[in-house]
C-alpha cells in the first residue's frame, strides 16, 4: 500500500511538472517564432533597400562603362577614318549604314516599349510587396500586444502564429519575384543603353568623317562640305527641315537626315499613341454613360407603369366601397339656350314649322275642337 501511494504521488508530481514544462516550451516557441518573423521582415526590408541602392549603383556603372567604351570607339573610328575614299565607295557604304540604322532604331523602339510595360508591372509588384509587408507588421504588433491575454489559450496563439508564418512565406516568394524581375530589368536596360550608345556612336564619328574623307573630285568635296555646314545651321534654326531636298546635298547628310526624320516620326507616334489612349478612355466612359442612360430610362418607364397600376388599383378600390356615386358629367349650355356646339361650329338653329291653325285664336280653336269631339 505504501509503495502504491508513493507511485501515485510521484505520478501526480510528474504530470504537474510536464504541464509546466509544456507551457514554458510553448512560450519559448512563440517568442522564437515572433522574433524570427521580425528578423526576417527586417532582412527583407534591408534587401529591398539594398536592391534599390545596387540598382542605382549598377546604372551608374553602366553609364560610366558606356562613356568609356564610347570614347574608345570614337578614338578608334577617328584613327581609322584618316584615309582616302571615292564617292562610289561612300555611296555603297551609306546605303548599308542607313538600312542598318533603321533596323537598329526599330529594335530600340521595341525594347523601350517593352521596358515601359515591364517597368509598370515592376512598380505594381513593389507596391504590393510594401502593402503586404506593412500589413504583416501590423498583425505582428497586434499579436505582440495580445500575447499576454493569450497566454492561457495556447492553441489560439499557435494557430495565429502559423497564419503569420504562411503570410510571411508568401511575402518572401513575392520578394524573390521582385528581385528576379529587377535583375531582368537591369539586363534589358543595359541592352537598351548599349543599343542607344551604338546609334549615338554612329552619328558622332560621321561629323568628323567629313573632315577626313577625300573625294576623287575636289569640287564635289568642297561643295559637299559647304552644304553640310549650311545644313547644320538650318537644323539648329528649325527642326522641321525639308529632308527630301537634303538627300540630294551630300552622302554624309543622308544618314543624319533620315535619322532626324525618323526621330520626328517617333515623336509623332508617341503623341498619337497618347491621344489614342485618351480617346479610348473617353469612348469607354461614353459607353458607360450610354448604359446608365438606358438603365435610367428603363427604370423611369417601370416607375410610370407602377404609378398607372397604382392609380387603377385605387380607383377600383373606391368603386368597390359602399355608397360610391358616379358623378355624371353635365353638358355645358350657353345662356341663350343654343348649344355650344352650334355656336362654335356655326350651325344655324332649326326653325319650328308654323301650323295651319296658327292664325285662329286659341279660344276659337278650343271650341272647334270640342264640337268635333261631340
From TrEMBL:
InterPro entries according to UniProt: NET2A-D/KIP1-like_dom (IPR056888)
Official protein name in the record: NET2A-D/KIP1-like alpha-helical domain-containing protein
Keyword annotations of the record: Coiled coil
Residue ranges of every copy of the NET2A-D/KIP1-like alpha-helical domain listed in the record: 90-204
One Pfam family cited in the UniProt record for this chain: NET2A
Stretches assigned to coiled coil: 147-191
PANTHER family: PROTEIN NETWORKED 2D (PTHR31631:SF0)
Domain of life: Eukaryota
Amino acid at each position: 500500500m505504501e509503495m502504491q501511494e508513493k507511485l501515485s504521488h510521484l505520478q501526480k508530481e510528474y504530470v504537474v511538472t510536464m504541464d509546466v514544462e509544456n507551457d514554458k516550451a510553448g512560450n519559448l516557441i512563440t517568442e522564437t517564432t515572433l522574433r524570427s518573423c521580425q528578423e526576417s521582415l527586417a532582412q527583407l526590408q534591408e534587401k529591398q533597400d539594398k536592391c534599390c541602392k545596387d540598382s542605382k549603383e549598377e546604372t551608374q556603372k553602366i553609364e560610366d562603362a558606356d562613356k568609356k567604351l564610347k570614347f574608345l570607339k570614337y578614338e578608334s573610328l577617328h584613327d581609322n577614318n584618316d584615309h582616302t575614299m571615292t564617292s562610289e565607295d561612300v555611296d555603297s557604304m551609306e546605303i548599308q549604314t542607313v538600312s542598318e540604322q533603321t533596323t537598329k532604331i526599330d529594335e530600340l523602339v521595341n525594347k523601350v516599349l517593352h521596358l515601359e510595360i515591364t517597368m509598370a508591372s515592376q512598380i505594381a509588384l513593389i507596391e504590393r510587396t510594401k502593402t503586404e509587408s506593412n500589413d504583416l507588421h501590423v498583425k505582428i504588433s497586434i499579436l505582440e500586444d495580445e500575447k499576454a491575454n493569450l497566454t492561457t489559450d495556447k492553441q489560439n496563439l499557435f494557430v495565429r502564429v502559423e497564419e503569420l508564418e504562411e503570410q510571411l512565406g508568401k511575402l518572401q516568394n513575392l520578394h524573390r519575384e521582385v528581385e528576379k524581375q529587377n535583375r531582368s530589368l537591369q539586363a534589358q536596360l543595359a541592352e537598351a543603353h548599349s543599343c542607344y550608345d551604338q546609334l549615338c556612336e554612329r552619328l558622332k564619328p560621321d561629323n568628323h568623317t567629313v573632315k577626313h574623307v577625300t573625294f576623287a573630285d575636289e569640287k564635289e568635296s568642297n561643295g559637299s562640305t559647304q552644304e553640310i555646314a549650311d545644313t547644320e545651321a538650318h537644323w539648329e534654326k528649325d527642326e522641321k527641315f525639308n529632308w527630301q531636298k537634303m538627300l540630294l546635298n551630300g552622302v554624309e547628310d543622308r544618314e543624319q537626315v533620315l535619322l532626324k526624320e525618323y526621330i520626328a516620326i517617333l515623336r509623332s507616334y508617341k503623341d498619337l499613341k497618347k491621344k489614342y489612349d485618351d480617346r479610348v478612355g473617353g469612348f469607354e466612359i461614353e459607353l458607360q454613360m450610354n448604359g446608365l442612360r438606358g438603365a435610367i430610362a428603363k427604370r423611369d418607364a417601370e416607375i410610370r407603369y407602377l404609378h398607372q397600376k397604382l392609380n387603377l388599383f385605387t380607383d377600383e378600390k373606391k368603386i368597390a366601397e359602399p355608397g360610391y356615386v358616379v358623378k355624371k358629367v353635365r353638358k355645358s349650355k350657353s345662356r341663350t339656350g343654343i348649344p355650344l356646339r352650334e355656336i362654335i361650329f356655326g350651325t344655324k338653329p332649326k326653325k319650328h314649322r308654323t301650323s295651319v291653325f296658327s292664325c285662329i285664336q286659341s279660344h276659337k280653336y278650343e271650341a272647334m275642337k270640342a264640337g268635333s269631339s261631340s
